[in-house]
Automatic annotation (TrEMBL):
UniProt GO cellular component terms: cytoplasm
Pathway(s) where this gene product acts: Amino-acid biosynthesis; L-histidine biosynthesis; L-histidine from 5-phospho-alpha-D-ribose 1-diphosphate: step 2/9
Cited NCBIfam families: histidine_hisI, PRK00400.1-1
Subcellular compartments: Cytoplasm
Enzymatic class: hydrolase
Gene3D superfamilies: MazG-like (1.10.287.1080)
Protein name: Phosphoribosyl-ATP pyrophosphatase
Taxon lineage: Bacteria, Bacillati, Actinomycetota, Actinomycetes, Micrococcales
Gene that this sequence comes from: hisE
Enzyme Commission code: 3.6.1.31
A Pfam entry, by short name: PRA-PH
Keyword Nucleotide-binding: yes
Record organism: Candidatus Phosphoribacter hodrii
Coiled-coil features, chain-numbered ranges: none
GO molecular function annotations of the record: ATP binding; phosphoribosyl-ATP diphosphatase activity
Signal peptide residue numbers: none
Length: 87
């Protein structure tokens, strides 16, 4: 099972090593605007899943939202500590 910190480390490694065919690399290359649009889409899917599709589907959608948020963090040069400072 992945953790929030573990996922960030994995994504940071992909950002640094840029493996061919990586969806994460493709998102980073698309830029903050495209990633932001994906976050808005995923947030809506979280809401709809939580309201209409049950906890399992909501958890799946939340995991996707967290992934895209972390990609945006990397694209923006933010670290986990930058975010944790505001919790």
């Amino acid at each position: 099972m992945k953790t929030f910190d573990g996922l960030f480390a994995e994504l940071a490694d992909k950002a640094a090593t840029r493996p061919a065919g990586s969806g994460t690399v493709a998102q980073l290359d698309a830029g903050v605007h495209a990633i932001g649009k994906k976050i808005v889409e995923e947030a809506a899917e979280v809401w709809m899943a939580a309201e209409h599709e049950g906890p399992e589907r909501a958890a799946e959608e939340i995991s996707q939202l967290l992934y895209h948020l972390q990609v945006l963090m990397l694209a923006s040069g933010l670290t986990l500590d930058d975010v944790y400072a505001h919790l």
